[in-house]
UniProtKB/TrEMBL annotation:
GO cellular component terms, A-Z: membrane
Organism listed in the record: Desmodus rotundus
UniProt gene name: OR5
Highest taxon of source: Eukaryota
A Pfam family it matches: 7tm_4
Protein name listed in UniProt: Olfactory receptor family 5
Cellular compartments annotated: Membrane
Length: 223
């Protein structure tokens, strides 16, 4: 919930202020800060979802060892790893972006400072930056998705082997809220950043961004 509030708050206040203002402006330094904060907490959220999937795996597949495996110390280490990985990943993103030149248009075709719109404005060769961003993002998202898929493959196998119908229903209900969050988050993420360039639309991206940056963080604590 803390992570959801942080990365939603990095976008929502400025977005609402722009809706009420005729002059929709943001200073370059503030744009970089917004880009970093939103990206950092979104990356942390991505890793945290995989950590939560592992937590569900231990709870269902090894319930007798849960208190030992997921001790307070281990939980703190996992959270620290999520924040470290998320902030390191977004530091690479930010460095690759701020080293570019922006000498022509300063009109961002978006409602907040995100990486793709800023790359579109650059007058520099963005090939190296785009490759670095793609590799970095793919590693973070890919490892998180693989962890989620592996965890739930073991969870489903374990649930199907349960003889008690009550036990199966309880296990599925335990995972339902997390699976809903995972589906919404990763679905929006892949739609925004991993769709083919031939079908990419900036206007569609804006609509998805509202859902991704505002709606999802509001729904996650409720889910």
């Amino acid at each position: 919930s803390f992570c959801d509030v942080c990365y939603s708050s990095s976008v929502s206040p400025k977005m609402l202020a722009d809706f009420l203002s005729e002059q929709k402006k943001i200073a370059y330094n503030l744009c970089v800060v917004q880009m970093f904060c939103f990206g950092a907490f979104a990356a942390v959220e991505c890793v945290m979802l995989s950590v939560m999937a592992y937590d569900r795996y231990v709870a269902i597949c090894n319930p007798l060892l849960y208190t030992v495996t997921m001790s307070r110390r281990v939980c703190i280490q996992l959270v620290a790893t999520a924040y470290t990985a998320g902030f390191m990943d977004i530091t690479i993103f930010t460095y690759c972006t701020i080293r570019l030149s922006f000498c022509n248009s300063n009109i961002i075709n978006h409602f907040f400072c995100d990486f793709p719109p800023l790359l579109d404005l650059s007058t520099s060769d963005t090939t190296t930056s785009e490759i670095a961003l793609t590799v970095s993002c793919s590693c973070l998202v890919g490892s998180s998705v693989i962890t989620v898929l592996l965890s739930y493959s073991y969870i489903v196998t374990t649930i199907l082997r349960m003889k008690s119908a009550t036990g199966r229903c309880k296990a599925f209900s335990t995972c339902a809220s997390h699976l809903t969050t995972v589906a919404i988050f990763y679905g929006a993420l892949f739609f925004m950043y991993f769709q083919p360039s031939s079908s990419y639309s900036r206007d569609t991206d804006k609509v998805a961004s509202v859902f991704y940056a505002v709606v999802i963080p509001m729904l996650n604590p409720l889910i």
